[in-house]
Amino acid sequence: MAVEPISIRQMEKQTADVYEAVAIMSQRARQISQNRMAEKMLDDMEEFNSDSMDFMVEEEDPTYEEQEKPTTVAINEFMVGDLSWRNISDEKPSDF
């Protein structure tokens, strides 16, 4: 699950600016992390609503599967070309 070294030339195929590429990948990793957190919170709320009010200490889940790290997923999506983005500064400002 470790992140492999990435060639700058490969990143330049997606965008000409390396800093832009890093910003895009970091934003996507943040989105993945937030989505996972929201899903976990929803699952916890469903368990809380369906269980009785008896509180017991939870033990480690035996069906736990380690997920790929958000950074690794974001880098892979970027390198394959699955991500799309737009520059807000390039857009024409609208009048109110």
Architecture overview:
The protein has helices spanning 8-14, 18-50, 70-80. It has three helices and no strands. It starts with 7 loop residues before the first helix and ends in a 16-residue tail after the last helix. It has a domain at 8-49. It is mainly alpha-helical and 96 residues long.
Low-confidence stretches: none
Helix and strand succession?
Answer: HHH
User: What is the overall pLDDT average?
Assistant: 80
**Rg over C-alpha atoms, rounded to the nearest angstrom:** 20 Å
- Given the C-alpha coordinates, what overall shape results? flat
Structural class: mainly alpha
Strand content: under 5%
Kindly state the number of beta strands: 0
Helix content: 40-55%
How many helices in DSSP terms? 3
Distance between the termini: 48 Å
**Major sheet summary line:** none
